[in-house]
Amino acid sequence: MKISEIVKGLSLEVKSANVNLEKEVTGGYVSDLLSDVIANCKEGNIWITLQTHQNIIAVAALRELSGIILVNGKLPNADTLKKANEEGILLMASSLPAFEIVGRLYNLGIRCR
Q1: Of 38, 49, 78, 88, which has the fewest beta carbons less than 10 angstroms from its beta carbon?
Q2: What is the pLDDT of residues 11-51, one digit of tens each?
Q3: What is d(CA 41, CA 19) in angstroms, rounded to the nearest whole number?
């Protein structure tokens, strides 16, 4: 499934600029521990987290993720957004909790771990 379909299906707010919304998503991963994401997330996954600091961008770039969904109404700070734009990492935001985002992704056919 393409990111654009997920953005539309979950009514996500795209925060980063100049990103490819046609990337394929291979699955999802939910965690707020950076080391856990580094160890377990797979290339092409979409990451669901409430972390907003710029280290999330480094992790997403390292693991070649399709994007990051920030939950619980969290928004990226200016440094995080700047780094996301520099690295071409897609940042999205939702007011929904992680549990509900994962359920909606599941209903769209995306399996999360």
Answers
A1: 78
A2: 999 999 988 899 999 999 999 999 999 999 999 999 999 99
A3: 20
The residues, ordered by sequence, that sit 6+ positions from 55 with a Cβ below 8 Å of its Cβ are 34
Residue 113 domain flag: no
Whole-number Å distance between alpha carbons of 102 and 81: 23
Under 8 Å between Cβ of 112 and 30: yes
CATH code, 88? 3.40.1390.20
Alpha-carbon distance values, 4 to 19, 30, 37, 53 (Å): 11, 20, 23, 24
pLDDT at 53 over 90: yes
What's the CA gap between 110 and 53, in Å, rounded? 26
